Amino acid sequence: MTITAEERRARILEVVRELGTVRVMDLAARIGTAPVTVRRDVAALADSGLLRRSHGAVSLPRSEGATTGPAGSGHVIGMLVPTVGSYFDEVIDGARAAALAAGARLVLGIASYESADDHAQVGQLLDAGLDGLLLTPNWRPGTDSGETEWVRDLPVPAILVERLAPPDSAAAELDAVGSDHRHGVLLALRHLLSLGHESVLLAAREDSWTAHQVRAGYTEAVRLLGLKPQPVIDIHRPGLDSELVAARIIEAAADGVRAVLVHNDHEAIQLVPLLRARGLRVPDDLALISYDDVFAALAAPPLTAVAPPKRAVGTAAVELMLRRLDGRSELPTHHVQLLPELKVRTSCGGGAG
């Protein structure tokens, strides 16, 4: 027999009163209901002040006057990222440090850029008994709004990290924290213009959200700065197209274009020796700026690079989540964009600073 949500939640409260503290998975088994349904019920009861969630378990609220730990104490925050070992390492480090300082715990999940199973990965994270979720789904500009709706229906508070939902999607009302990559591209092109370059190439990947933001930022910055537009050099196969990209840059250099912005560090570092072998030296013959600043300082020569505030993004996302979890429901939806900075080294011939 189907029971109503009210009856189901009343049963949940009965079990918690009986057992004191119980894991969400055990609670679901006890009342014979799917875990995802129980998580939603528990979230609703917690929002009403009838239950308390902590480390994947639920209990009755503390009595009035009970002592509490530091802000965020006991909270479990999940974090889904598309990769580790590069850009997102610093984002994770910032999130982990902020969680630790607040007495919270961070649980990590990975869904690769090629993966289409964000939803499934999130389900596995939720089974850890999360209080909130930091989410970097594999979206790109042009993603259909219908493909994002499941994020809006999660049973715990969610914050998008380095992503924005389509504006016509209900998920657009979620909190979001990320880098303003368009501003980062503007910084790079403005610097090259200050060095006398009136035309700048862009060689960019096309397999990530950041890549599309860099491309859009390039179009915008060329217009704002009055630069001569150039066709974007597409990097279709990251790590494998370097020879083709180098050939395109050499063709443009023959026509007088002697500055290039490359997304990302991996691609830029591979290009430098290929260009040199063809008689085009960085920075003597070509000014080069990399985007991401993960490994750029280790290149030869050290690469001037746009540095998104990766660690600060992770920190800000956790801090915003803790404000949500500590009951500050009066907060409006936050779309926070942190500004990158330009790390000037030697690869664009402008001196280091």
UniProtKB/TrEMBL annotation:
The keyword Lyase belongs to this UniProt entry's keyword annotation: no
Lineage of source species: Bacteria, Bacillati, Actinomycetota, Actinomycetes, Kitasatosporales
SUPFAM superfamilies linked to this entry: Periplasmic binding protein-like I (SSF53822), Winged helix' DNA-binding domain (SSF46785)
SMART domains in UniProt: HTH_DEOR (SM00420)
Gene source species: Kitasatospora gansuensis
Residues in HTH deoR-type domain copies: 5-60
Pfam families: HTH_DeoR, Peripla_BP_3
Protein name: DNA-binding LacI/PurR family transcriptional regulator
Keywords attached to this entry: DNA-binding, Transcription, Transcription regulation
GO molecular function: DNA-binding transcription factor activity; transcription cis-regulatory region binding
